[in-house]
Amino acid sequence: MKTALSIAGSDCSGGAGIQADIKTMSAIGVFGMSVIVSVVAENTSRVISIEDVSPKLIADQIDAVFEDIEVDAVKVGMLSTPACMAAVAEKLRQYRPRHIVIDPVMYAKNGCPLMQESSIGTLIDTVIPLATLLTPNIPEAEKIAGMPIKTVDDMKTAARRIAGLGARAVLIKGGHYIGDAEDILYDGSAFYPYVRRRIDTKNTHGTGCTLSSAIASYLALGESLPGAVERAKEYVTGAIEHALDIGRGCGPTHHFYRFYSQQGGTL
Ligand SMILES: Nc1ncnc2c1ncn2[C@@H]1O[C@H](COP(=O)(O)OP(=O)(O)O)[C@@H](O)[C@H]1O
Ligand SMILES: Cc1ncc(COP(=O)(O)OP(=O)(O)O)c(N)n1
User: Fold this and answer.
1) Atom from ligand 1 closest to the CA of residue 236
2) Which residues fall within 8 angstroms of residue 117, CB to CB, at 6 or more apart?
3) Inter-axis angle of helices 17-28 and 207-220, to 10 degrees?
């Protein structure tokens, strides 16, 4: 069985972070593993508090996985501080997994910061050059590229700039855009658009985590990069279409709706 590792934060309410990643990997059919970098007390409406795991324990978790198990792809999510970033980057440089999909998480959908403002320099210098694919949303891409993004042409310019920082490929996600849900992949030489109609729902907690871990899963299964993004886009669109109205805020994406419908369930 192919394997994928999520290095990210824990969302106790189950909609984003490590929890969304493992559900995605399981639904797609790869063996999901996790290195917890931060514990986030959050739900569909708010973030209450965040505590980071020590750099040593982050490094030990990564060693525990890599010394024992072949890792076919890695997804990196929330890294809140320069210390967390340095611990993860050092180990990724040591183990050099083939596919490293990095979601440069900065804010939760409710606006709460998940990355310290002072970490942006370390993100750019230390983390982004490790990415075989970086998957910023529009506000994240604006911060990293240092430019406003208002049009699809701006998305392309920003993707080129971010590739110039060392990411081998960049997928700018259009969830925060207006109109269709259009994402743009730049692989260093060509642009690939991925367009679906925008689904009218408030239940989008965990969309970015779902997409990036789905891409990592399809890469682990041997898809090409454009193919993995196409299949992951299909996956996240279905997961948003069937998103669950759980909680008082933005409900989570749904990973097992096909399974439940086969079982005759109602979820
Ligand atoms: N309402 C929606 N309808 C359809 N697709 C969406 C919707 N919201 C987000 N997406 C898609 O979900 C994926 C994650 O994007 P986005 O929400 O921008 O990420 P993030 O969670 O990091 O902010 C992208 O493929 C985006 O196009
Ligand atoms: C622990 C943790 N990691 C990441 C996020 C952000 O998830 P994302 O899929 O980008 O979007 P929202 O969940 O914020 O809608 C998170 N909330 N928690």
Assistant:
1) 12
2) none
3) 40
> What residue owns the CA closest to ligand 1's atom 17?
175
Domains present along the chain, CATH in parentheses: 3-262 (3.40.1190.20)
Q: What are phi and psi of 55, to 5 degrees?
A: -55, -35
* Contacting residues for 96 by C-beta, under 8 A, at least 6 apart: none
Torsion angles phi and psi, residue 5, rounded to 5: -115, 130
Token pair of 10 as six digits: 């824990």
pLDDT digit string, tens, across residues 181-217:
999 999 999 999 999 999 999 999 999 999 999 999 9
**What is the end-to-end Cα distance of the chain in Å, rounded?**
28
- Ligand with an atom nearest the CA of residue 233: 1
Against a cut of 0.95, is the pTM above it? yes
**ipTM of model:** 0.98
Of 76, 62, 71, residue with least CA distance to 32: 71
Cα-to-centroid distance, 108 and ligand 2 (Å): 5
Question: Position of tokens 């898809």?
Answer: 223
